[in-house]
């Protein structure tokens, strides 16, 4: 048991570990709910467990949502079915690795949270405005990270459309086609038994596409979210007064090199390999967030070559 708590502490104490933290939170919540459901059902309190879930899953009823507004966040960390969480976490890991590598941990968190919020909002609006769904809205609740995950999938496909995954029994396939299939399946399922979940997928997909497009134009929609998260991190974490200096003797990064790159940012064309190497060195020393707007744009151009 001590080892488990040590693993938990280690997962949340490390920097640049957002992907594993998101997966870890989902898995822990799933495990707790499954144990709780089993215990309560065996003790004859299954109805109480179902009532408890209404405080975590998102209702389609506007009046109920007004009293449980927090569910627009808790729903995308909540799963009760094994295959539901399995496929969500696998897709989160595969596509989240790409987002983490090219955009950094903070933007991965932005996409996960904003995708979930977008999915929840379109779910709520759809079930209260579309006649077909209004007839099925009574007692309808939504849970699961699918909206957040498809936001990350579409974002990765927008950023790196020709990146290839090797799928079992299929072979190599570009991720833009994987994302397209997921969107089409969500559209086709919008009138089925899981209409709410599929509508949330579409909200997440739209958010993922627009987020990357705006990021490529120099606008990060996740800045308000990071400001809120930074506020809470500042409350619960102490900042170390020590500063660590790093120097790579083979290809050192210096502030002058960064300045020279910034000074030539308006020159058209793709960046040189030397510039990309210097940017990557800077990321390894100071993290993605230390890059200037021009350096990020150069990294975008290089990733699309």
From TrEMBL:
<dbReference type="InterPro" id="IPR046483">
    <property type="entry name" value="DUF6576"/>
</dbReference>
<keyword id="KW-0378">Hydrolase</keyword>
<feature type="transmembrane region" description="Helical">
    <location>
        <begin position="167"/>
        <end position="189"/>
    </location>
</feature>
<feature type="region of interest" description="Disordered">
    <location>
        <begin position="247"/>
        <end position="272"/>
    </location>
</feature>
<feature type="transmembrane region" description="Helical">
    <location>
        <begin position="18"/>
        <end position="36"/>
    </location>
</feature>
<feature type="transmembrane region" description="Helical">
    <location>
        <begin position="72"/>
        <end position="96"/>
    </location>
</feature>
<keyword id="KW-0812">Transmembrane</keyword>
<protein>
    <submittedName>
        <fullName>Rhomboid family intramembrane serine protease</fullName>
    </submittedName>
</protein>
<keyword id="KW-1133">Transmembrane helix</keyword>
<dbReference type="InterPro" id="IPR022764">
    <property type="entry name" value="Peptidase_S54_rhomboid_dom"/>
</dbReference>
<dbReference type="GO" id="GO:0016020">
    <property type="term" value="C:membrane"/>
</dbReference>
<dbReference type="Pfam" id="PF20216">
    <property type="entry name" value="DUF6576"/>
</dbReference>
<dbReference type="GO" id="GO:0006508">
    <property type="term" value="P:proteolysis"/>
</dbReference>
<feature type="compositionally biased region" description="Low complexity">
    <location>
        <begin position="254"/>
        <end position="265"/>
    </location>
</feature>
<keyword id="KW-0472">Membrane</keyword>
<dbReference type="InterPro" id="IPR035952">
    <property type="entry name" value="Rhomboid-like_sf"/>
</dbReference>
<feature type="transmembrane region" description="Helical">
    <location>
        <begin position="108"/>
        <end position="127"/>
    </location>
</feature>
<feature type="domain" description="DUF6576">
    <location>
        <begin position="272"/>
        <end position="305"/>
    </location>
</feature>
<feature type="domain" description="Peptidase S54 rhomboid">
    <location>
        <begin position="68"/>
        <end position="212"/>
    </location>
</feature>
<dbReference type="Pfam" id="PF01694">
    <property type="entry name" value="Rhomboid"/>
</dbReference>
<dbReference type="GO" id="GO:0004252">
    <property type="term" value="F:serine-type endopeptidase activity"/>
</dbReference>
<feature type="transmembrane region" description="Helical">
    <location>
        <begin position="139"/>
        <end position="160"/>
    </location>
</feature>
<keyword id="KW-0645">Protease</keyword>
């Amino acid at each position: 048991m001590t080892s488990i708590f040590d693993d938990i502490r280690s997962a949340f104490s490390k920097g640049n570990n957002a992907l594993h933290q998101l997966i870890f939170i989902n898995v822990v919540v799933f495990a707790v709910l499954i144990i709780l459901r089993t215990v309560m059902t065996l003790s004859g309190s299954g109805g109480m467990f179902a009532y408890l879930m209404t405080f975590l899953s998102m209702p389609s009823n506007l009046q109920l949502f007004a009293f449980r507004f927090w569910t627009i966040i808790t729903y995308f960390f909540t799963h009760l079915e094994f295959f539901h969480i399995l496929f969500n976490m696998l897709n989160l890991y595969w596509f989240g690795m790409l987002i983490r590598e090219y955009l950094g941990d903070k933007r991965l968190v932005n996409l996960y949270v904003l995708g979930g919020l977008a999915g929840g909002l379109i779910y709520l609006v759809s079930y209260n405005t579309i006649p077909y769904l209004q007839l099925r809205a009574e007692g309808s609740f939504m849970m699961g990270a699918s909206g957040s995950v498809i936001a990350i999938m579409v974002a990765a496909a927008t950023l790196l459309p020709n990146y290839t995954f090797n799928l079992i029994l299929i072979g190599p396939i570009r991720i833009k086609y994987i994302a397209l299939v997921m969107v089409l399946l969500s559209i086709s399922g919008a009138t089925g038994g899981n209409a709410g979940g599929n509508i949330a997928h579409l909200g997440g997909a739209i958010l993922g596409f627009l987020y990357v497009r705006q990021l490529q134009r120099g606008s990060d929609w996740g800045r308000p979210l990071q400001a809120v998260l930074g506020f809470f991190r500042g409350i619960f974490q102490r900042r170390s007064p020590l500063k660590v200096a790093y120097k790579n003797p083979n290809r050192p990064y210096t502030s002058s090199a960064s300045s020279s790159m910034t000074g030539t940012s308006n020159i058209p064309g793709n960046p040189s390999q030397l510039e990309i190497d210097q940017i990557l060195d800077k990321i390894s020393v100071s993290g993605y967030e230390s890059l200037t707007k021009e350096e990020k744009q150069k990294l975008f151009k290089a990733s699309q070559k």
